[in-house]
Amino acid sequence: MLIGLWVITLVMLSGCLNHPSMIQYTGKSKNWSASYTITKLNRGDHMDQFQIRYTGKDPAKVGRVKYKYTGTTMSGSGEQKLSGNRDIVTGGGGNGALPLEHSTIQVTVEWRGQKEEMELSSGASRK
Fold first, then answer.
1. Could you tell me what percentage of the chain is helix, strand and coil, using 3-state DSSP and rounding each to the nearest 5?
2. Cα 41 to chain centroid, rounded
3. Edge-to-edge, what's the strand order for the sheet holding 114-122?
């Protein structure tokens, strides 16, 4: 009897918890692909990760990369040497406003005198 009551209580409590959910925005240009992922946690908190990947032939020759991204409620920028690796990844978290799932994120990448722009969108807003 006590075990049955415990199981019922556990099931009821688990239904009250917010489970993490994720929104991912993706896009690509001639030499780069990018993603911005938001993982919603409990009580309005979230974690985010921005990743750009060099899709060209020789990442060792890319050198320093400047990037920036801008959405409706967020933005970021940075500069980092690619060092033969193909990816640059940044992330953070907080409890501020999140972009709408159907919005887009503008990304600019600059390296060795070249510049490419791309638009990231979630699967829900992609045509």
1. 15, 50, 30
2. 14
3. 75-81, 64-70, 104-111, 114-122, 21-28, 32-40, 46-54, 87-94
Residue 94 tokens, joined: 């907080």
Q: What is the CATH number of domain 19-122?
A: 2.60.40
Name the burial class of residue 109, with classes exposed (0-12), middle (13-18) and buried (19+) by CB atoms within 10 angstroms of its CB.
buried
pTM: 0.76
What does the pLDDT look like over 18-63, one tens digit per residue? Answer: 556 889 999 999 999 999 999 998 777 899 999 999 999 889 889 9
Per-residue b or e along 49-75, where b marks 16 or more CB atoms closer than 10 Å to that residue's CB: ebebbbeeeebeebeebebebebeebe
Q: What is the pLDDT of residues 60-78, one digit of tens each?
A: 889 999 999 999 888 999 9
Q: Are 107 and 118 in contact (CB under 8 A)?
A: yes
| Domain range annotation of the chain | 19-122
**35 contacts: CB under 8 Å, gap ≥ 6:** 24, 25, 26, 49, 50, 51, 120
